[in-house]
Design goal:
With 149 residues, the chain is an alpha+beta fold. 52% of the residues lie in helices and 17% in strands. A four-stranded antiparallel β-sheet has the order 3-2-1-4. A hairpin with a 2-residue loop joins strand 1 (3-10) and strand 2. The termini are far apart.
Protein backbone atom coordinates (compact mmCIF):
# COMPACT_ATOMS: atom_id res chain seq x y z
CA UNK A 1 0.00 0.00 0.00
CA UNK A 2 1.45 3.33 -1.05
CA UNK A 3 1.43 6.40 1.13
CA UNK A 4 1.80 10.02 0.07
CA UNK A 5 3.26 13.06 1.82
CA UNK A 6 3.75 16.74 1.09
CA UNK A 7 7.42 17.59 0.55
CA UNK A 8 9.06 21.02 0.65
CA UNK A 9 12.41 21.58 -1.09
CA UNK A 10 14.80 24.49 -1.39
CA UNK A 11 18.42 24.08 -2.46
CA UNK A 12 19.62 21.02 -0.52
CA UNK A 13 17.02 21.27 2.29
CA UNK A 14 14.09 18.85 2.33
CA UNK A 15 11.22 18.87 4.82
CA UNK A 16 7.84 17.20 5.06
CA UNK A 17 4.48 18.60 6.15
CA UNK A 18 3.18 18.15 9.68
CA UNK A 19 0.20 20.26 10.80
CA UNK A 20 0.67 22.42 13.87
CA UNK A 21 -1.25 21.78 17.04
CA UNK A 22 -2.65 25.31 17.04
CA UNK A 23 -5.60 27.06 15.45
CA UNK A 24 -6.01 25.80 11.84
CA UNK A 25 -7.16 29.29 10.83
CA UNK A 26 -3.53 30.45 11.00
CA UNK A 27 -2.52 27.79 8.48
CA UNK A 28 0.50 26.85 10.57
CA UNK A 29 2.95 24.30 9.29
CA UNK A 30 5.62 22.39 11.15
CA UNK A 31 8.41 20.85 9.14
CA UNK A 32 9.18 17.26 9.93
CA UNK A 33 11.28 14.34 8.86
CA UNK A 34 9.66 11.53 6.93
CA UNK A 35 9.13 9.57 10.19
CA UNK A 36 6.85 12.25 11.69
CA UNK A 37 5.23 13.62 8.53
CA UNK A 38 1.49 13.53 7.94
CA UNK A 39 0.64 10.93 5.27
CA UNK A 40 -2.33 10.21 3.04
CA UNK A 41 -3.47 6.95 1.48
CA UNK A 42 -4.07 8.52 -1.94
CA UNK A 43 -2.26 11.09 -4.02
CA UNK A 44 -5.58 12.80 -4.69
CA UNK A 45 -6.20 13.24 -0.95
CA UNK A 46 -2.77 14.77 -0.36
CA UNK A 47 -3.15 17.09 -3.36
CA UNK A 48 -6.58 18.21 -2.22
CA UNK A 49 -5.26 18.96 1.28
CA UNK A 50 -2.34 20.87 -0.19
CA UNK A 51 -4.60 23.02 -2.37
CA UNK A 52 -7.40 23.63 0.14
CA UNK A 53 -5.47 24.02 3.40
CA UNK A 54 -1.89 25.07 2.75
CA UNK A 55 -2.31 27.57 -0.07
CA UNK A 56 -5.15 29.54 1.50
CA UNK A 57 -4.55 33.22 2.25
CA UNK A 58 -1.32 34.97 3.17
CA UNK A 59 0.21 31.98 4.92
CA UNK A 60 0.11 30.10 1.60
CA UNK A 61 1.92 32.96 -0.11
CA UNK A 62 4.61 32.84 2.58
CA UNK A 63 5.04 29.09 2.01
CA UNK A 64 5.44 29.57 -1.74
CA UNK A 65 7.99 32.33 -1.23
CA UNK A 66 9.99 30.29 1.27
CA UNK A 67 10.28 27.01 -0.67
CA UNK A 68 11.34 26.40 -4.29
CA UNK A 69 9.26 23.24 -4.67
CA UNK A 70 6.15 22.12 -2.79
CA UNK A 71 4.90 18.79 -4.07
CA UNK A 72 3.05 15.61 -3.22
CA UNK A 73 5.39 12.61 -3.27
CA UNK A 74 4.91 8.87 -2.92
CA UNK A 75 6.64 7.26 0.03
CA UNK A 76 8.26 4.04 -1.13
CA UNK A 77 7.85 0.82 0.88
CA UNK A 78 11.53 1.05 1.87
CA UNK A 79 11.06 4.62 3.14
CA UNK A 80 7.97 3.46 5.08
CA UNK A 81 9.98 0.65 6.67
CA UNK A 82 12.78 3.06 7.62
CA UNK A 83 10.24 5.46 9.13
CA UNK A 84 8.61 2.68 11.16
CA UNK A 85 11.88 1.12 12.39
CA UNK A 86 14.32 3.92 13.29
CA UNK A 87 15.82 1.99 16.22
CA UNK A 88 16.83 -0.95 13.99
CA UNK A 89 18.45 1.51 11.57
CA UNK A 90 20.45 3.15 14.38
CA UNK A 91 21.61 -0.23 15.74
CA UNK A 92 22.72 -1.54 12.35
CA UNK A 93 24.51 1.74 11.56
CA UNK A 94 26.36 1.51 14.89
CA UNK A 95 27.43 -2.08 14.08
CA UNK A 96 28.55 -1.03 10.61
CA UNK A 97 30.55 1.91 12.01
CA UNK A 98 32.31 -0.39 14.50
CA UNK A 99 33.37 -2.80 11.74
CA UNK A 100 34.30 -0.04 9.27
CA UNK A 101 35.44 3.03 11.21
CA UNK A 102 35.76 6.38 9.51
CA UNK A 103 39.34 7.57 9.71
CA UNK A 104 40.30 11.19 9.43
CA UNK A 105 43.71 12.79 9.24
CA UNK A 106 45.40 15.86 7.82
CA UNK A 107 48.09 14.98 5.31
CA UNK A 108 51.13 17.20 4.80
CA UNK A 109 50.88 19.73 1.95
CA UNK A 110 53.36 17.81 -0.21
CA UNK A 111 51.31 14.62 0.20
CA UNK A 112 48.14 16.52 -0.76
CA UNK A 113 49.89 17.81 -3.86
CA UNK A 114 50.96 14.28 -4.82
CA UNK A 115 47.45 12.94 -4.22
CA UNK A 116 45.99 15.57 -6.55
CA UNK A 117 48.44 14.49 -9.28
CA UNK A 118 47.43 10.84 -8.78
CA UNK A 119 43.68 11.53 -8.80
CA UNK A 120 41.67 10.11 -11.71
CA UNK A 121 38.92 12.23 -13.28
CA UNK A 122 35.75 12.32 -11.14
CA UNK A 123 37.42 10.34 -8.33
CA UNK A 124 36.38 11.13 -4.76
CA UNK A 125 38.85 11.44 -1.90
CA UNK A 126 37.75 8.09 -0.49
CA UNK A 127 38.09 6.32 -3.84
CA UNK A 128 41.53 7.84 -4.39
CA UNK A 129 42.83 6.81 -0.98
CA UNK A 130 41.35 3.31 -1.20
CA UNK A 131 42.88 2.78 -4.65
CA UNK A 132 46.33 3.97 -3.56
CA UNK A 133 46.23 1.99 -0.31
CA UNK A 134 45.33 -1.18 -2.23
CA UNK A 135 48.30 -0.47 -4.51
CA UNK A 136 50.53 -0.07 -1.45
CA UNK A 137 49.30 -3.38 -0.01
CA UNK A 138 50.17 -5.14 -3.28
CA UNK A 139 53.67 -3.62 -3.25
CA UNK A 140 54.19 -4.71 0.36
CA UNK A 141 53.10 -8.27 -0.45
CA UNK A 142 55.52 -8.41 -3.40
CA UNK A 143 58.36 -7.17 -1.19
CA UNK A 144 57.56 -9.81 1.44
CA UNK A 145 57.61 -12.53 -1.22
CA UNK A 146 61.04 -11.32 -2.46
CA UNK A 147 62.41 -11.33 1.08
CA UNK A 148 61.21 -14.89 1.72
CA UNK A 149 62.92 -16.17 -1.45
Amino acid sequence: MSLYAIRFKKDNRVAYFMPTQGDPEYNGVDFATLETAKTWKTEKGATKYLETHLFVGRAGEKLRARWTTIEVVEITPQQQWHANNPEIIRESKAKYDIKRPVLSFRPKPEILEWLEKERLPNETDAQLLNRLLEKLIQLELKNLEKIKQ
